[in-house]
Amino acid sequence: MIIVMRTDASDEEIAAVTEHLSARTLTAHVSRGSERTIVGVVGITQDKDTLAAQFSQLQGVESVIPISRSFKLVSREGRTQTTVRLAGGAIFGGNEIAICAGPCSVESRPQLMGAAEAVRKAGANVLRGGAFKPRTSPYAFQGLGEEGLKLLREAADRSGLSVVTEVLDVRDVEVVLRYADMLQIGARNMQNFGLLRAVGEARVPVLLKRGISATIEEWLMAAEYIFVAGNHDVVLCERGIRSFDSHTRNLLDISAVPLLHHLTHLPVVVDPSHGTGVRDFVGPMSLAAVAAGADGLLIEVHPNPAAALCDGPQSLNPAAFEELMRAVEGVATAVGRRMPYSRVAAAAG
Q: Which residues, other chains included, contact 264 with Cβ-Cβ below 8 Å and sequence gap of 6+?
C-alpha cells in the first residue's frame, strides 16, 4: 500500500501518519520527492480496503493506493519518476542519458588514467572500473583491490567524473564507500540478500545488475530489499541473460527497458558490453537501448583492448567509443533526450 501525501503536508502530518502505522505494527518507508512525499506501507495482512479507507482520513493524506504487486516500494503505482544523482553531478533519470564508461578492471595507473581522459573527452560523465573482480576461474585476474579503488578515485577527480564500481562482499562495503560515488551489485550477487541489505544501509546510490537467469520480478524484488533497508537511490542495469545460443555472450533483453518503465519508477540503464560480449555489437545495441528509453549506458572502454586482462573482446578503444558517442547523441536527440554535455564542449574543455 502507498500513502500519497498532499503537496502542502507538514512534517507533523507526515509524522502522524507514520506513528499511526507503527501503532498497527506496520512498517512505514518515507520517500520525500521534490513535489510530494510518499509513504510505503509494508506488513499488511488484514483487509486492505478497510485500512485504505481509514488511512485516507488522516490529516495531510491526498490518496491511498493499494498495491497487489510483491514489489511495493519500487512499483510505479503511487510514484511517477525517480531521479538518482551522484556526487560529481551525474544524473540517472529525466531527460539526460548517463554515460558510464571505462575498463572492465583497473590494471595499472597509466591504463586507467588514459581511459578516464578518453571517455571524458568523448562525453562520458561516470567512470566505471572493477577493483574487485568476480571471475569464473579462480586463476583469472581478480583485480587490484583497494589500490584499484584509489586509482579510480584519482582518475575520476582528475577528469571530473563520478565513480561506479562493484562491491562483492558485505565486508568490502565500508572500504568501497571511501572511494565510490555509486556501488554496483553485479549479476552474480543480485540475490545476495545480505549484500543487498548492506548497500541499502549505506545510503549511497546503487547500480543493480540483473542476474544471468533472473526474471523481471526477481530483479525488482532484489531492488525492494535495498529499498526496505532504507536506500531509495537505486538504478537498474540490464546486462543480458543466459541463453542457449552461443553466438553472443548473453541475450540482451532490450524489451526489459520499456517493461521496467511500465512497472517501476526506477531509472534503467543498459550494459551492451556484457549483454553481447562482442565488440562489433556494442554500438548497435547502445543505439537500440537509447531508442527504447534507457536512462543510461554502461560501456567498457580500454586504451588497448588486445592487451586487456579482462573482457578485451567486448571492449571498445577510445576512437571507437568517441564515434559511438556521436551516434548515441543523434539517437538521443531524435527521441527527445540529451547527453550529459555535448562532445564539442567536452573536446574544447
A: 71, 74, 75, 76, 220, 223, 236
Cα–Cα distances (Å) from 97 to 197, 207, 317, 323, in that order, read: 28, 15, 21, 17
**pLDDT tens by residue, 150-183:** 999 999 999 999 999 999 999 999 999 999 999 9
Is the separation of the CB atoms in 324 and 298 below 8 Å?
Answer: no
344 vs 202: which has the higher pLDDT: 202
User: Which superfamily does CATH assign the domain made up of 84-348 to?
Assistant: Aldolase class I (3.20.20.70)
How many beta carbons lie within 10 A of that of residue 163, not counting itself?
Answer: 28
In the beta sheet, which residues pair with residue 162? Answer: 126
2-65 maps to which CATH number? 3.30.70.1140
* DSSP string of 245-297, one letter each residue: --SSSSB--TTHHHHHHHHBSS-EEE-HHHHH--HHHHHHHHHHHHHHT-SEE
The pLDDT tens digits for 216-256 are 999 999 999 999 888 989 999 999 999 999 999 999 999 99
